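G., the chain you wanted modeled:
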Amino acid sequence: MIIKRGYFQDFISLFFPELCVGCNKNLFKNEHIICTNCIYHLPYTNFHEDDKNKVAKQLWGRFPFVQAGAYLYFRKGSKVQNIMHQLKYNNKPETGFKMGELYGHSLKKSPNWQLPDMIIPVPLHPKKLKKRSYNQSEYIANGMASALEIPVLTHHLIRAADTSTQTRKSRFARYENLKEAFKIKNPEQFHQKHILLVDDVITTGATLESCSLVLLELENVKISIAAIAFAE
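Predicted structure as C-alpha cells:
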C-alpha cells in the first residue's frame, strides 16, 4: 500500500507534533518553526527605520559604523527569550535561519537600510563550537543572506581566545575579557567592503565592538551591525 507523503507526515505529527519555538503550541500544516500568531505579535523594534535607535546610541563613540540595529526586543519570560533559548541551547539551529530570513526581508524592504557587500557572523571558539555543534549566529547570517542575496563569510573572522562567560560582567569587564579574542584570516577579502556583522543578542555590545575593532584595522572597511534581539 502506498501512503502519500502528506498523509504520512500528518500521521507522524499526531505523535510527534512540531511545536512553535515562541509559544510552544502545535504548528499548523503550512507553518514552520514559528507560528503565524507569534510572528504577528512579536515585539519588533523597527530600528532599521531609525538611524538613532537604541542599539546605535549604545554603540556611538565606541567604533565607527554605517548602521546598527536589532530585530526584536528581548525581555525575560517573553516569547523572544523562548526563541533564543531554543536556538542556543535546545539544538534548534533552524530557528536561527528562520529568524534571520524574516529579519533580512524586513531590511530589504527598508529604504533607510544600506545593503552591505557581505555578512560575517560572530564566530565561536572551536571548543565551544565542538560542544554546541553549531554557531547560532552563522545560522542567523545564512537566513539573512538568503533574503538579502549577499554572501556569508564564515572562516575569515576567527575567535582565537576561549574567553570566559560574559554573563554578569560589567561593560568594562566584558571589553577586557574580549581583548585580542578575534583574529582575521585572508584580510584581502575585505578590502573596500561594507560588512554586516551579525550576532544573536545584543546586551552591552562588547563582543560586536571587539569584532568590529579588528575588522576596522583593515583598509577601507565599513561595518554595520545586526542582531535578532536587543536586551534593554
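The longest helix spans residues 94-109.

Shout if anything looks off.
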